[in-house]
């Protein structure tokens, strides 16, 4: 197997992080204490073959040399759904929903104005997010009855902000009418980006 040139990988990673403005990631800078520590786990959602782990490790190292990355498999390994590869969670690292929102609000007050969006997994987290007065509460992969309950809770709390669902990996456009009936304010779908099919292109040359 041909190994990647480490210097080439480093240059590509640095260029990509610069283009992505990785150093200006306000979600982490404003909600996670600088001295905070957390363990992140990357896992698969679908079966497949893993490639590019050395590049992933270089990305973490470039962002923070103190990050310890421990691959659990090697490049070229076939994996199944749920297999662990290398989960980040800003809320865990920040010490909870209320702490994360307070930290983000305090940092925003020093300069730029931002919208604070809180991802929640169940009704208990939705209540914490609504009471913390984030700008948006985003139920992630919650069932319709859970989203409806979150909307009712939002409407019952004075001063609560907007609520909208995010269905990770689900083609939300097919379910917009169903989701609209829950009383949400907006909908988003990760499938619009991470599941966009690649266009198959080829080149044909003709003499003359």
From TrEMBL:
Keywords: Glycosyltransferase, Transferase
PANTHER family on file: NICOTINATE-NUCLEOTIDE PYROPHOSPHORYLASE [CARBOXYLATING]
Taxonomic lineage from the root: Bacteria, Bacillati, Actinomycetota, Actinomycetes, Kitasatosporales
GO biological process: NAD+ biosynthetic process; quinolinate catabolic process
Species per Swiss-Prot/TrEMBL record: Streptomyces argillaceus
GO molecular function, one term: nicotinate-nucleotide diphosphorylase (carboxylating) activity
Quinolinate phosphoribosyl transferase C-terminal domain residues: 84-202
Annotated region described as Disordered, given as residue ranges: 157-180
GO terms for cellular component: cytoplasm
Gene expressing this chain: orf18
Family annotation (Pfam families): QRPTase_C
Protein name, per record: Pyrophosphorylase
Similarity comment text for this entry: Belongs to the NadC/ModD family.
Keyword Nuclease recorded: no
């Amino acid at each position: 197997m041909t190994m990647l040139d480490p210097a080439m990988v480093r240059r590509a990673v640095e260029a990509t992080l610069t283009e992505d403005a990785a150093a200006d990631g306000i979600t982490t800078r404003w909600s996670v204490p600088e001295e905070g520590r957390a363990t992140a786990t990357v896992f698969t959602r679908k079966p497949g073959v893993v490639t590019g782990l050395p590049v992933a490790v270089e990305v973490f190292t470039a962002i923070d040399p103190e990050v310890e990355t421990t691959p659990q498999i090697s490049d070229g390994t076939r994996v199944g759904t749920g297999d662990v590869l290398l989960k980040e969670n800003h809320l865990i690292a920040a010490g909870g929903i209320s702490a994360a929102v307070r930290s983000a609000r305090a940092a925003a007050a020093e300069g730029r104005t931002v919208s604070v969006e809180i991802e929640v997994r169940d009704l208990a987290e939705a209540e914490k997010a609504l009471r913390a007065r984030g700008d948006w509460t985003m139920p992630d992969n919650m069932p319709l009855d859970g989203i409806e309950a979150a909307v009712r809770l939002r409407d019952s709390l004075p001063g609560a902000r907007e609520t909208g669902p995010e269905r990770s990996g689900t083609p939300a456009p097919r379910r917009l009418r169903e989701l609209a009936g829950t009383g949400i304010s907006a909908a988003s779908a990760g499938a619009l980006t991470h599941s966009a099919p690649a266009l198959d292109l080829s080149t044909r040359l003709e003499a003359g």
